[in-house]
């Protein structure tokens, strides 16, 4: 049976030291915190065995380091796979219109943007959007109307037509 009070005392007495050690070893505090948290969770799961070790703190430190290295390896492997896949793919150029639409979408409210994207890009009906968003159909219709109006205003600004108003005589 695990003794929560004993583990809590161990955790309180050692966590800052282990975190400091791991941070010094890997150089990233956020990653060190994540790895230390995972190591202490594993220690709690195996507390009956860990408490009998010569140094439970060393056990936690070793596990935390292994967790951090494993996370680093996974990240490196993901990046390598991404580069490998990305190099083999042909990417079409992004049109000026695409950039303008994405920029205009960023300038409208999140609710309007969600409704416009779900309706016009995903192809959902007003009823389907209402169900997904958790609102009524009239609210979706209002967001769509206002979103379209706002998009139209942003897409008809001179900057999207290659005209700089300041450059006119």
Spatial shape: elongated
Oligomer: single chain
The number of helical runs is: 8
Question: End-to-end span in angstroms?
Answer: 85 Å
Structural class per helix/strand content? mainly alpha
Helical content (DSSP H or I, runs of 4+): over 70%
- How would you sum up the major sheet? none
Main traits of this protein?
single chain, 169 residues, mainly alpha, 8 helices, elongated, disordered C terminus
Report on the structure:
This protein is 76% helix and 0% strand. With 169 residues, it is mainly α. Helix 1 (4-26) runs antiparallel to helix 2 and helix 6 (110-122) crosses helix 8.
In short:
By secondary structure, the protein is mainly alpha-helical. Helices cover 76% and strands 0% of the residues. Residues 163-169 have low confidence and may be disordered.
Write the SSE topology.
Blueprint (H helix, E strand, L loop, with lengths): L3 H23 L2 H17 L1 H4 L5 H33 L7 H11 L3 H13 L3 H8 L3 H19 L14
Helix pairs in contact: 1-2, 1-4, 2-4, 5-8, 6-8, 7-8
């Amino acid at each position: 049976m695990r003794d929560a009070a004993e583990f809590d005392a161990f955790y309180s007495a050692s966590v800052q030291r282990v975190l400091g050690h791991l941070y010094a070893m890997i150089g990233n505090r956020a990653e060190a915190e994540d790895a230390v948290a995972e190591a202490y969770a594993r220690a709690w799961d195996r507390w009956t065995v860990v408490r009998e070790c010569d140094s439970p703190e060393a056990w936690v430190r070793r596990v935390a380091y292994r967790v951090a290295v494993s996370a680093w390896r996974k990240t490196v492997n993901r990046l390598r796979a991404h580069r490998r896949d990305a190099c083999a793919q042909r990417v079409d150029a992004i049109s000026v219109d695409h950039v303008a639409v994405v920029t205009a979408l960023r300038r409208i409210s999140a609710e309007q943007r969600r409704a416009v994207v779900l309706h016009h890009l995903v192809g959902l009906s007003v009823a389907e959007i209402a169900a997904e968003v958790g609102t009524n159909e009239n609210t979706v219709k209002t967001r769509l109307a206002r979103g379209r109006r706002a998009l139209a205003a942003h897409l008809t600004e001179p900057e999207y037509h290659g005209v700089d108003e300041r450059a006119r005589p």
